[in-house]
Amino acid sequence: MKKTIFSKFDKTKIGALPRVLFEGRIVVVLSEWEAEKAVRYLLTQPILGMDTETRPSFRKGSVHQVALLQVSTYDTCFLFRLNQLGLSPSVKLLLEDTTVPKIGLSLRDDLNSLHRIGDFNAGYFIDLQNRVSEVGVEDMSLQKLYANFFGQRISKREQLSNWEADVLTDKQKLYAATDAWSCIMLYEELLRLEQTGDYELIKVGNDDEASTAA
Which of 64, 101, 114, 169 could form a disulfide with 55 if both were Cys (CB 3.0 to 4.6 A apart)? Predict the structure, then answer.
């Protein structure tokens, strides 16, 4: 039976879906020594998922620098606390690596934010927003894409929390790790569907979306 995916996923249905959470190991990286060790391990992996977090600003014209870089394998996610580390030599090495694919969403925004804290030449990155359009999917948010491809819900509850806090909460860690890890899951499922053709795309127009959401 072919998997059904939609060109646009009805966001009103997301709340009823079962929640997905990263179930692996989460490691917080605070020092260059820890970063060096983490990057050495990450660069032995076949694929990585990546995302960033920035402390929200509720004042017009005020923008904070990126505070967290989360990089995940299939079962381990490293949380690099950039507000303490900065763009350390090991973090720069990771970002400039050209051998291991790093999968993310809206990577232009992430890379621009990272460039504001230090210079580097971006290595091997793959943006899911570019890839999903190749199968006819128009949604660009991680939450909608995961719901569309897997029928599961990624909670965004911690998105607007303080990512510069002295100590990250367990909920923040889990949120950050899930976002990075889910990029790997989406990319590999996308590759599988492209290679097998084992999917049916249902095109949803603006009128359909409006009537579904009503």
Answer: 64
pLDDT tens digits along 49-80:
999 999 987 677 667 899 999 999 999 999 99
Nearest to 104 by CA among 75, 145, 67: 145
Q: Quick check: 208 pLDDT over 70?
A: no
The predicted model gives 89-104 an average pLDDT of 98
Classify the C-alpha dihedral 74-76-81-82 as positive or negative: negative
Asked if pLDDT for residue 149 goes beyond 90, the answer is: yes
Amino acid found at 171: K
Please tell me the distance from the alpha carbon of residue 110 to that of residue 113, in angstroms, as a whole number: 5
How far apart are the C-alpha atoms of 182 and 197, rounded to whole Å? Answer: 22
Query: What count of Cα atoms within 13 Å lies in the side-chain half-sphere of residue 2?
Result: 12
Rounded alpha-carbon distances, angstroms, from residue 114 to 73, 82, 152: 20, 9, 30
Is the Cβ–Cβ distance between 47 and 101 less than 8 Å? Answer: yes
Quickly count: other Cβ atoms within 10 Å of residue 205's Cβ: 10
Query: pTM here?
Result: 0.92
